[in-house]
Design brief:
The protein has 567 residues and is mainly α. The protein has a domain at 10-201. Helix content is 55%, strand content 1%. It is built from 22 helices and two strands. The protein has helices spanning 10-18, 27-42, 50-58, 71-81, 87-93, 98-114, 121-134, 141-160, 173-195, 223-228, 238-263, 295-308, 310-313, 324-350, 361-384, 393-396, 399-409, 415-434, 440-465, 507-514, 539-543, 555-565, and strands spanning 469-471, 477-479. A two-stranded antiparallel sheet has the order 1-2. The relative contact order is 0.09. Residues 276-289, 353-361 and 468-567 have low confidence and may be disordered. Keywords: Nucleus. Residues 35-202 form the Xylanolytic transcriptional activator regulatory domain.
Length: 567
């Protein structure tokens, strides 16, 4: 570690000691947390020259380490990694629960920041990004967002002080700074949706150069590192390192597409399943600036991204068992985010007009249901392969809008669609149940959806027991299925819109992406169907939806709205 700064006062030193800022885990625990950090965080946020970092941490004093490690960086890595470890590792660290470990390790980093222990701009930016990850929670996204704002501030200071010049070494410092900039950018946009705050930086207003493979150090690691971390096969394989890098680049460019989407003047998070609770106006200016782009332009940009990274979006993971834990999770995460972005675009398109139009509602609502199904199937894949721990809280929250689309479809008159909607809704509940030990708000989501499902089943039983009949085409009397909310109703005939092939390679993926645009119809600039009778901004439809974020605070209101669904 770097020596204690000589300018540190006695009071600050005592404060750091009281918060155990100088305590470090034992060697075995450090190696476990380092492996977890590389798997879960570095693959998305490559903010370190990893080879140099690992050599510095793993080199013993008698081996003559020539570099000094920032104590704040080390504690930030430990604090961020503990978010993703299992209960056994938490107990090995000496804490009874994950939350206790997260709080204690985070307080160590925070104490170092509060006392100005670290003065290096690069180390500060890296630590603050990791602090935002360590603090990330779907119930309190604002807490995590505050640390991203500070990271941007220090990044600006570094730019003004000309700290980003190229220099010697396998990776020029400017390349590493670009990776840090993109990490801030991605985390900023992930949390902007979560806490409904404006993004700090927009890609269109910053001259940051896009990352490329040359900005990463792709080569095998020395035996000192590979022997200490034998479970990480990517350290010995350049092909895996390159695949990690390509997924990272795809993730960055996807969030650049979302930048335009979220800044679009026609975009609204106040309608349909994306509605946030307590919203008064569908035009709240939660972004600092709005662009003049249209929903269709944003959708075309998203489609361009899908075409560029079709192997990741349109195909199931093809990785072996040794790498599925990371690469597969990252690929599924891209599919979830892109399908969620499409869902948001469709909801905004449907909410733009309240004028009844006969043509087009059928096609748009089918696409919305397909997008929700893709999101759900992605989470089911993660749960099936025990990969939910590899996904951040800001991505996990994307399941609730999809679940609410399924909930609406549970009231359709088409029996096959209703049965599949109920099945998908049950699977969403199981996913939330799998997250209860990590996020307390997941339990609230479970309770809300379980109660909604119970009300649905009770209503179906009541309808059947009361003998509500209709007459079929052959003259026979038959029970009428419940039809309480038909704004998302889709009659697909004999074709089941939910029938997906294994591991996300489903017909819905084709409907959503492969048939996304009609290239031969250049005169028609309308990507989605013309808005019709579906009006998400009026009455029960708008207020009945809620987000996963801060769900605990609006649980009673959502339960009340669900009673309106079931009469």
């Amino acid at each position: 570690m770097k020596p204690v700064p000589p300018t540190l006062s006695r009071d600050k030193l005592q404060y750091l000691m009281a918060n155990h800022a100088f305590n470090v885990p034992n060697d075995a625990a450090v190696k476990v947390l380092l492996a977890t950090y590389i798997d879960h965080i570095h693959s998305v946020f490559p903010i370190f020259h990893l080879r140099s970092l690992l050599e510095t941490i793993l080199t013993t004093p008698h081996q003559g380490c020539r570099r000094d490690l920032s104590l704040m960086v080390f504690q930030a890595i430990m604090a961020a990694a503990v978010v993703f470890v299992g209960p056994d590792v938490v107990r090995q660290l000496g804490w009874p629960t994950r939350n206790a470990a997260r709080k204690a390790l985070f307080e160590r980093v925070k104490a170092l920041y509060d006392t100005n222990y670290e003065t290096d701009r690069q180390s500060l930016c890296q630590s603050l990004i990791l602090m935002s990850i360590a603090k990330e929670d779907p119930e309190k996204p604002e807490d995590s967002r505050a640390w991203v704002d500070l990271a941007w501030l220090h990044l600006e200071c570094a730019q003004s002080q000309a700290c980003l010049r190229d220099g010697p070494g396998p990776i020029p410092p400017s390349a590493l700074w670009r990776r840090i900039w993109w990490a801030c950018y991605v985390q900023d946009h992930r949390l902007a949706i979560a806490c409904k705050k404006s993004v700090v930086r927009s890609f269109t207003t910053n001259d940051s150069v896009k990352l490329k493979l040359d900005d990463f150090d792709i080569r095998c690691y020395p035996s000192l590192v590979t022997e200490a971390l034998p479970s990480l096969s990517l350290l010995q394989r350049t092909d895996l390192q390159e695949e990690y890098t390509r997924l990272c680049l795809a993730n960055n460019e996807l969030y650049a597409c979302l930048d335009s989407t979220l800044a679009c003047d026609q975009m609204s998070l106040h309608s349909g399943p994306w509605a946030y609770p307590g919203t008064k106006s569908p035009r709240d200016r939660w972004f600092q600036t709005r662009s003049s782009g249209t929903v269709n332009q944003c959708a075309r940009q998203l489609h361009g991204w899908v075409q560029s990274y079709a192997p990741y979006v349109m195909s199931p993971p093809q990785h072996t068992e040794t790498t599925i834990n990371v690469l597969s999770a990252r690929q599924i995460e891209l599919q979830i985010i892109s399908a969620s972005a499409l869902s948001l675009l469709i909801c905004s398109q449907l909410s733009q007009s309240a004028q009844p139009v006969e043509f087009g509602v059928h096609e748009s609502t089918i696409k919305l249901i397909h997008a929700a199904t893709e999101v759900t199937e992605g989470f089911l894949f993660l749960r099936r392969h025990r990969l939910l721990s590899y996904v951040s809280a800001s991505v996990l929250q994307l399941l609730m809008p999809a679940a609410l689309v399924h909930l609406r479809q549970c009231y359709t008159e088409v029996p096959s669609v209703r049965e599949n909607s109920v099945s998908l809704l049950r699977q969403c509940i199981k996913v939330f149940a799998s997250l209860e030990d990590t996020y307390s708000s997941a339990r609230s989501s479970c309770l809300v959806l379980e109660q909604a499902l119970d009300r649905l089943m009770a209503h179906i039983s009541k309808t059947v027991s009361h003998g509500d009949y209709t007459t079929s085409e052959d003259g026979r009397r038959q029970h009428s299925p419940p039809c309480l909310s038909t704004d998302l109703e889709v009659d697909c005939g004999s074709e089941n819109p939910y029938k997906g092939a294994q591991q996300l390679r489903s017909p819905s993926a084709s409907a959503v992406f492969e048939a996304f645009l009609d290239s031969e119809d250049e005169a028609n600039d309308t990507l989605f169907a013309t808005p019709g009778t579906v009006d998400f901004d009026s009455g029960v439809q708008d207020s009945s939806y809620s987000s996963y974020v801060n769900l605990r605070d609006v649980e009673q209101d959502l339960l009340y709205q669900l009673t309106l669904f079931s009469g």
